[in-house]
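Re: the request from the purification team.
They wanted to know what the chain is likely to look like in 3D before they choose a buffer screen. I agreed to run a prediction and write the result into the notebook, where they can find it.
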Amino acid sequence: MLHDILCDKTNGTEYVNKFAITITNKWPLLFFGPNLNPFTVVLAARILAKLCISQGPSYVNKFRTISEGFLVLRYLLPNYWNLTQLHETLMIMMMGIDISDYPIYSTFDINNLRTCLHYSQENNKLAIPDVLPIIIALWDEGRKIVEGPKPSVFPPILRSPLRPRSNSAVTRPVKEKINKEVTEANRALISRSLEAFIQLFDELYDARPVFREACSKQDVIDCIVQVLFSSVCHTSNMTSDDELNSKDVVLTNFDLDHTGSPSSAISSPIDGSPYHDRFRDNDDNISIDSANTNSGSSIIKRGGTSALTTKTSPHVSKRGHVFMTRLRSASWSQGSNAIPTKVLQDPMLDSLLNFVVDICIQSIIDPQSKNLTGLTLVFSAFPPSTHEQQLVFESYLMTHIAQNMKSTLQLEMELLFDHRIISNVSKFAQLAADAVIQGRFKEGGTEQTYDLLATILEILHTDDFYNRIGSNDASLIALYRAFNRMILVKISDLEYGELDTVKTTAFLEYCIHHQKIILSAKNNDMEFMKCFCYHLYRYLLSNDEKVRDAAANMWKLLILQKPDTVTSVFNIRVKGIESEDLIDGFRQILEMDLESFYRWLDSRKFELNILFTEHISKAWESTVMQEHKYSRETFKNYITKRINKLKKLQKREYYEREIILDYTTKTLTWSQSIHEVEMSRFTKALQDSEGHGNFIQSEWTRISEDLMRERAIWGPEKSDDLKWRLDYTEGPNRMRKRLQYISDNDYTSYLPKQTPLAPSHSSNTTNNVSNMNSKNRTSTDIDRELTEGPGYVDNSKPENNHSNNDEMEKNDQDDEHISYEEDKNRKVLRLLDQGDMVLDVYNISQIAGLDASEGLLLLCKNNIYLIDNFFQLSDGEVVEIWDVPKEERDQYLLLVAQAAGMDTEPFISPSGDLHTCRKWATADLRDVFKRRFLFRDVALEIFFTDGQNALITLDLSERDELYSKLVSRVSVHEDSTGALFGREKDGYTNSGLSSTFKLSSIFGTSTLHDLTQRWERKEITNFQYLIYLNAIAGRSYNDLTQYPVFPWILADYHSQELDLNDPKTFRDLTRPMGAQTAERRKEFSERYKQWGETDDPTPAFHYGTHYSSAMIVCSFLIRLEPFTQHYLKLQGGTFDHADRLFDSIGKAWESASEKNMGDVRELVPEFFYLPEFLTNVNKFNFGVKQGTGEAIDSVVLPPWAHGDPKIFIQRHREALESEYVSANLHHWIDLIFGCKQQGTAAIDSLNVFHHISYEGAVDLDAITDIVEKTATIGIINNFGQTPRQLFKKPHPMRTPSVTDPMVLGSYIFQDHLDKLVQSLMPIRGVSSCQQLLMPPDGLRYIEWGFTDNSMRLYSTDNGKVNVLFFY
């Protein structure tokens, strides 16, 4: 099911994204362990592929580095090597293709995969190259089965136990097969399947550069070569430690200056070194590797030297019985035991060999490959093994590479037109020649290398190539030098073989056949010619006639084609010998018969022997010694490099073992923990049965009550006694318009066994829910919660059953005790969504009007929870709020309760639930603001996308920490549906806010400065601007002491009609409410002056009351719950005298602007959008006025409202958006939020309030006297709080509206109806619908009145519908 959901393209990416965020990337690894259902393994692999490709490099990198996932997969997946669907999934994943595009096929056909890869778009690089070693590890496991029988193998994919969905990626069910022993037929089938995958790899290597680049990594080549190496050689499971030990012995005893006999050399099984640097030198300076010589060969041991003599050397008599010197004496191998190689007749292994050879060939014929990279990597990839095994494998590879190289160049001779390829070929030729001479390329290596070089040089001597390459070309010189060395090697082998007649004759005839190459004018190697002439002379002395004649024929060709070279060879000054006579004698071979030449040769044998054996032979001995010396020098470097690689390999093996051990241990522990928790959950489920029953009963009571309400299914049509309250949910522009029904009935609540009515608490109730405390959580805990769900508690104990009655009674008591202990914690966890897990827990207090409810804020993986009446003690224990010691509770809330009557007792919801829970998804978090409560930086206001919000306070030390965590969860919004506001900073600039302050609303993301400019340009309304200024200044609907403040707009509450064009209709926005009349200005100014003349240390102020306080807000909104209850709390439980209640808008204006010196109140936002607060919807009895006996009911409205609250709100809002207010509102902003709020400008504007109402005037935390602190809190709460100052400079004026058509470029429609004229074109036809031509050109007309309520735009020319609108 999970596979179908995640890997189904029709479901989109939402599920995959949520899954990747929610579930740890270690989770898929659990489904790759041994002995699991193979179908499950394939599905898990496909899910992992989907996650890696859809989530991109960041997810892959986390899976690679944090979880070491690819390393673990390389360890686990070989158990399922025979699942072809697994191979396909890994290849699809590696190439970066969406696995949803590739179904699960029940039968294997490589063409399905080949087609999918063909149609996939090629990327710049391989998506997940880490998969390559995993696939190769599957091949290696398959190789073991192919080569030899195994006790048992895993079966192919079993049939899916799940019903496949119709639109799922699974197109065919996987057939079930029976597990059985591997037979020859099965082994052949396995081999063919793996062969198909390897061939596909080879095709990708040739066709896709990105794949070639991925395969050209050393670790990938190591894996490939290891599989082939084990098949070619009989491996002995040698470790890197074993090989390192042998290398250390050799390196310790190696001495380049050692000159003892061959028996003094060190004999040790040593392997080949990394080839990274061995092939990178130019020309001849290529490092030398080694191989065995033929069995029975006598070779100088590694590290030693011998007398470099030949049988005919005059030094033989001086040296005694020493080994015959050969060119092969530079070999690195003792050659005592030959290791047989396997003939790869298996298709899979043969394909693998071809793949490796192709890698090497491509590195040679690739013009971009300057250092034979692929070849270098292959010969550096030998796994830990014996030296002889490595030599055998290298010789095996060289054989196939040489053969393949020859056929490639013969079929594609045009490759040699590229000089870069010729350079690469010459490097390989030198490498092959070195391998032959050093004994690394045996089993016909001399013949194959000779044949390859002859083929190459013959191609280069054709007409198409000959003139393209000069004689001094370095690549050509290198090719000739390698070819000459092969001739000398063959000569050396013939000499060692006692000059076998047949072989010698065949060799000389072969030289005659290739005379064009050997005697070419471009073959200018003089040392070679000396060596060649030296051995040709020796062949002339042979007793065998055929050898002697063949040598004579070669001398003829040599003298004929290279006379100058022969002259140079003979041009040696030897006392008593006339070289010119000898040269002339040899030249006579062209004119005389062979018998005559032989007679002349015998006559001058003494002189010729001296010339050749004592002088010309030195070139041969020098060549042999140079090769031998070069071999010894490079061997030490080779050993050092091999040791370095082995040490790296040793470290990597150790690291991988540690990773796998750690993974195995943690997975086992994790699994055991899951088992324990599940068993514990089972016992707890039994204990929860009674609690769930109570909960269901409570929920049913609530639901049934909802079904019986007005206009519900079973409720009455209309109720006369309904009660309503204002819901705190905010709509657009932060307007709260929703009224909620208030039920008069109490519900039967689901309560814990001990309620606050009986708060006795057992001393043993110390259950620590450490899983809810993020500070003590481990990754295992988090993973447990992810697996077990919200019901997980790790301190449970299994119940013990005893037959003894006493024990049973005790056990029952324990069960009851455990049930009580788990009630609080598990009730908290029961409130969480399934699968959610707790990350952080904070003790907070929710502020709602005048109420404060202490509880917990849970930050979970998916949601945020606010739960009432729980508390987490300092030791991590979660308890009921009434069980918390007073010293651990919020002291300020307790002081507020004393000073202002704020309710801090446990809050009980209307349903009777003591622990009300509010929950929001993390994705619904819209904005977070730092707020002040009682002028202390301890509050946060949280906004959500559903319009809900919460004002919470918490410990000062935790506020910033929680703020950072919440902000990190807020998505960045740039569109009109973005966050409500932006981030609020601690620092502020001269404008009142940080320059980085951002707010996002319906008009997008902007700074306060940008917002002001948009208001100036009339892009946002006055209401929007004021509501957001209030929010930025710290005003909140949730705190009545900091309620949003709006201005009085109108001064006319007596006219029958409201004239918004008359300035007298409006109040003076340049002055505060206390300065609306001259009399009030004078009196308040005198009060300020007189206060300053007293000795009272309290700063002077104009007003003893504030324009916004909790009492002002509640008095305005008294007719609407919950403000009614807040008002009653402020008044001690009863309404004030009816004469002092808010009952008339006109009278309230007169009181605040003129008549009452203690009334300077401004308005609240509800005056501009909520008509319900003006009506006594709940039919409260507010009493009657004294004297008149008039009952207080709904608010008396101005005459121009015509008794309708909706009309009042509409006209009042129009007044707020009028031109006069727009032109003067900036003055009022200066008074409340701007430059006239404080300082000299405030004094001049009669705008100074009590100093405690200003931010920063008092530090409650610095007051130690509890009486003084309580009094200060009372003043702040009762008097009111001045908003934060946002602007230090005068607020700019709003741009006046432009009405001039000449400026606008068009007429305002409603003001210029007379400009409408009849169209010159008549209306088309007659229709039952209404038609109207569209000016100015009349090319289109609209028609409406259709039965589908549509409006259609037609073309006048053809009558076709252009656009269709629905209304």
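For the purification team: The chain has 43 helices and 17 strands.
Please add any questions underneath this entry.
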